[in-house]
Amino acid sequence: MKSEVLSVKEKIGYGMGDAASHIIFDNVMLYMMFFYTDIFGIPAGFVGTMFLVARALDAISDPCMGLLADRTRSRWGKFRPWVLFGALPFGIVCVLAYSTPDLSMNGKMIYAAITYTLLTLLYTVVNIPYCALGGVITNDPTQRISLQSWRFVLATAGGMLSTVLMMPLVNLIGGDNKPLGFQGGIAVLSVVAFMMLAFCFFTTKERVEAPPTTTSMREDLRDIWQNDQWRIVGLLTIFNILAVCVRGGAMMYYVTWILGTPEVFVAFLTTYCVGNLIGSALAKPLTDWKCKVTIFWWTNALLAVISLAMFFVPMQASITMFVFIFVIGVLHQTGDTYPVGNDVRYRRLRRVVQW
After folding, report:
1. 295 phi and psi, to 5 degrees?
2. What's this model's pTM, rounded to 2 decimal places?
3. For residue 258, what are the domain limits?
4. Which of 145, 178, 210 marks a domain boundary?
5. pLDDT (tens digit, 9 = 90+) per residue, 21-80?
6. Dihedral in degrees, nearest 10, Cα atoms 151, 155, 157, 163
7. Whole-angstrom distance, CA of residue 213 vs CA of residue 147
8. Which residue ranges traverse the bilayer (predicted)?
9. Domain count for the chain
10. Which long-range contacts link 253-258 to residues 24+ away (Cβ below 8 Å)?
11. Half-sphere exposure of 75 (CA within 13 A, CB side)
12. In a domain, 222, yes or no
């Protein structure tokens, strides 16, 4: 296929897809635990178990979704239809997950388990094909790098938009009625995310024709599991997301119950997001200077040390905590990229591996 220079509009359109994903993902990561325990009134032990089960389900659903998308045939391509047609139910279920129906405690736990599981599954339906879409927009390595650069910048912006605006929206819409505020806030952000995903669909085009699939889903899953590099990256991804979720989820409790000043939560988030932006800018010069694997290990080693050091900071030392959060934001974003090559049989399994 002849190489084609991608327009800025298409690059922005593609990046909007990840911005939409981060609007929801970052919001859930930072606020969902607090919402369930302090707003909906569900026991923390149940919520933690529910999150763990959902992550285990992801380990099955993500590669299966990749294989399903790879076998999709439509006039819109393999991956774009999933981005568009999964967007609306994704947004609706997100609002339902942040709703507080008047139920018994058992009813609340069942409702939370169903809506949260549906939310994670629909995130998979939208995000896995989206991640694979970048590989079929162009086959030019330079254009792909540019495309992914736009993606990561807009993804960071989407995460900032969601996490920084959520509490002001909660207070604006609900006032003292926090359940209404959380539901209204996520409804606004879900509409924005839906519009971004629709923009992604209408401004991108699948140009790279992948060879027809000749193997079964079972064979593909077996080949992936035999790829030791995939297993390593899979574990790294799980631990990376787990660390982000624990740090982010604990932050809301820290400012509410330890500092006693929940209004500074937005300031903490803004500090972290600024660190993310600087980390994104540092990633390329650092990886040009040293091997990506070396940068990954060094940044994550420092990240672990600083994360542990936070436990030894006096609870009143909020200024020091701001510094720690800023540095964590820089290091996390700098070391959050690692490539995966072909599978052990040297076939392209882009749609599955990129989850």
Report:
1. -60, -40
2. 0.80
3. 227-355
4. 210
5. 999 998 998 899 999 999 999 998 999 899 888 888 887 888 888 888 888 888 898 999
6. 180
7. 26
8. 40-58, 79-98, 110-132, 152-174, 180-202, 232-258, 264-283, 295-313, 319-341
9. 2
10. 253/34, 254/321, 256/34, 256/38, 258/315
11. 0
12. no
